[in-house]
């Protein structure tokens, strides 16, 4: 029997050093959020020159976040956009987060730019929209749930054919679905409260003038069990491997 195809983690950046030391890099956070063993995945670190095989070599793709900006049109990012267009044409399951959410939208003809009013940072409510009512990934979710966010850019205009499934108070495009096995989130389902607090501490060290603001944001950081269940549920539903996800709203 031929070996099962691996799941590809397209890593588009690195967590800050202190965050990485405490929690692992983005690939490790994705493994935990998806409930996957390391031997089920191949990690390709795009910024350092890694390049994936052809999309059909993988049974699914998970795309991480990054400190880079899609609008910089870095060479590795432009390569990834073209690769993702091919993966879409070949019906490969895809789940993108933050930079991955923006990158896929850009690759398919959407517009990405800076979020009005600056960075959306902290634990914030996400509201599901009417099209989410019968969505297989979201139907069991409460109409409003908490999620952890760190982003300066956003999908300003989704590409043709994308369905908007959720919004926050500041960003109207928090979840996009492209087809039954392709969905992306602007928020971070892989970020626990501990990860968020570590990010805030790192930011406070790098930007001392923002320490009072970041301390206030830190008071409202919380675990987000509903959003944290999404990646494992996607893997189970659309890739067909991995453990049963935690029920929405339960630890």
Summarize this structure as a short list of keywords or feature phrases.
single chain, 251 residues, alpha/beta, Rossmann fold, nine-stranded mixed sheet, two-stranded antiparallel sheet, globular, disordered C terminus
What is CATH's topology name? Answer: Rossmann fold
Oligomer: single chain
* CATH homologous superfamily descriptor: Class I glutamine amidotransferase (GATase) domain
Biggest sheet descriptor: 9 strands, mixed
Average pLDDT for all residues = 94
Low-confidence stretches: 242-251
Give helix % range: 25-40%
Give the topology string: H per helix, E per strand.
EHHEEHEHEEEEEEEHHHH
Beta strands, count: 11
**Approximate strand percentage:** 15-25%
- First-last Cα distance: 37 Å
Radius of gyration: 17 Å
| SS summary, helix count | 8
Explain what you see.
There is one protein chain. The protein has 251 residues and is α/β, with parallel strands linked by helices. The protein has a single domain (7-239), classed as Rossmann fold (3-Layer(aba) Sandwich), CATH 3.40.50.880. It is 31% helix and 23% strand. The chain has 8 helices and 11 strands. It has helices spanning 17-23, 26-34, 75-89, 99-107, 193-206, 211-219, 225-228, 230-239; strands spanning 7-11, 41-45, 60-63, 94-97, 111-114, 120-128, 144-151, 153-157, 163-167, 175-179, 182-185. The strands form 2 sheets. The protein has a 9-stranded mixed sheet, sandwiched between helices. A two-stranded antiparallel sheet has the order 5-8. The radius of gyration is 17 Å and the shape is globular. The N and C termini lie far apart (37 Å). The model is unreliable at 242-251 (pLDDT under 50).
